[in-house]
What we know:
17 strands, Amidase_CS, Amidase, Amidase_dom
Amino acid sequence: MADPAELSATELRAALGARDISAVEAVTAYLARIERGAAVNAMVTVDAASALRRAAQLDAEGPDPRLPLFGLPVGIKDTHDTAGMRTTYGSIRHAEHVPQRDALHVRRMREAGAIVIGKTNVPEYAAGSHSVNRVFGATRNPYALDRSAGGSSGGAAAALAARQVALADGSDMGGSLRNPASFCNVVGLRPSPGVVPEAESTNLLTPLTTAGPMGRTVDDVALLLSVIGTPDARTPIAAPSLGAAGEPRDLRGLRVAWAPTLGGNAPLSADVAEVLERAVALLAEAGASVETACPDLSGAADAFLTLRAAEFEMTWGDALDADPEDFNERLTWNITQGRSLTGRDIMSAQERQTALMRGAARFFENFDVLLAPAVTVAPFPVDWDYPRTIAGEVQAHYLDWMRAATTITVLGVPALSVPAGFTRESLPVGLQMVGPFGSDHRLLGIARAYEALTGFARHSPELPTASHHWSNEAR
């Protein structure tokens, strides 16, 4: 019998449906991988007993074709509520917090047959693209344990790469799905705003943050999107669902824009550039028409910083006053930046975002897809906060180095990171693919066709054997 943990989620679902593998066998295999890869520190709360009970129940009921995630062990980001399972938000103040109900998309995953095996690590309050906090410490990159796994969905990406979960959810404000996917050689999709409903969101009009799917392959991501990406009446904006999820796109004649530095907005390190140039050449060899081009991103980085700071102050300003020790210096800085903003500042940023979104719509009249780095550097040392320089350019703060992702966020369009290869130091690199608003499924089709040209999705890291007993059971 094949090791269930080595199968992609779609392959495992087929094996479960055919009863070639039982759900208990699948969960047992993934629990063993979590124990073996304890040094990665991706899964920070594990409820083995509940996962095995749910697996036995599903085995007794038998495979149900109406449950697309039947028997699949999944990890849930530790900023997303899970009923009865500890959810800390990466915060010392919430280190023992146990929610009473699931987040909407988590409930949908359970209802589709998924088995929640545990929670994945995050930065404090998911702020930043390096997953470290004072509750659980740092998540390490499975491909190099001395390197970052990215963030804020770093635990999710690392768990997928280390074969500790079959699927994982994440969220993305300024690259939190795309950055860790790039760092860990997996796929992460930031959907169009509204595709994955946020039932409790306080900003439905121009949201910077959206939940989204992560997986080892494009098909796996499409599978999870088919479950969590359906409308909800509490989210009145929604992008249309176009085409079959993950349907492959013929690359011949595809109109591709290649923007290695996003029009000079994001400095690119030489080692990442080398990998991405090969990736773009593959598409050209497959018949795509590739042109160096980029939408106008003037002011995008500043608009993102303004809107993010305003949102952070609104969300955590009172909490910072009440308990300043709960917030690290980067969060405190970001919240304080929000307090200095005027109404004019915020409305000007929204006005700039509107102009950028309209410009992107015009740009995509001439191109089917925009290609860019998901991250402009390879995974950096795990004891760094962030890279201080990229290609000789000093990064002003912990958000500055993520401009390849933050500038795309402001456009309000779908974007994903798909494995593009490895640097000469054997560190993963992701290619960012961006499409017009509402083109999520078509974008997945393009990514799936690209993925078929490479074997990178089948790469897995070699992890040292470790002995670990879970002290972080659901409480």
